[in-house]
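Section 5.1 Outputs to date
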Amino acid sequence: MTVELTIVDDAGAAADTTAGLLVEAVRAGGAVGLSGGSTPRVAYERAAALESDWSAGTLWLVDERCVLPDDPLSNTRLVRETILDRVAAPPRFQEIATHVGVEGAADRYDELLRRERVPSLLFLGIGSDGHTASLFPNAPSLAATERLAVAADAGLEPFVPRITMTLAAIAAAHHVVFLVTGADKAERVRQAFADPPTSAIPASLARSAAGRTTVIVDRAAASRL
């Protein structure tokens, strides 16, 4: 599957490009899946600054650590801090029920995704080991073809169990967008988007099946393509 490559000058420009896509989707009443991490934080904050009325849209989480929503490790907390608490009219937000434990939360999220359908737009990143969402290298979760959400191993530090959308869920999205910045990710970007797909680099397997897959990278991250 081909990807659309968007190379911008720096991390700030990458955040602006991502923010624009997010706001466009929300204004159109779309459902959007958000990933955690430090890279998208700025993009989410800039999206909130661009648009104060998010009431037409729905936000989902691509993955979550099995912690309470106010925990510093929580992606729910990230979304609240960067978007929900900053806009005048917040969107609907589909949280992951981490209070019932990792397996129970995964079951509930899988059922919710089946009932309401996978978001049409998903924002993903790439970890230092090549993972995306909470799909880690050679993990059993990569083979989950009958589920839209599963419990996942802790993966990288911090070693906290996680709930994640599966590759099947990612494939069902109409538009998958990767945001990757920094020279430290250049090798992983090459492996994920220029080399043959492999379970050793889960990001290389995460593509929209019938829609678009876009990669937004700054020049540093794209330096080995």
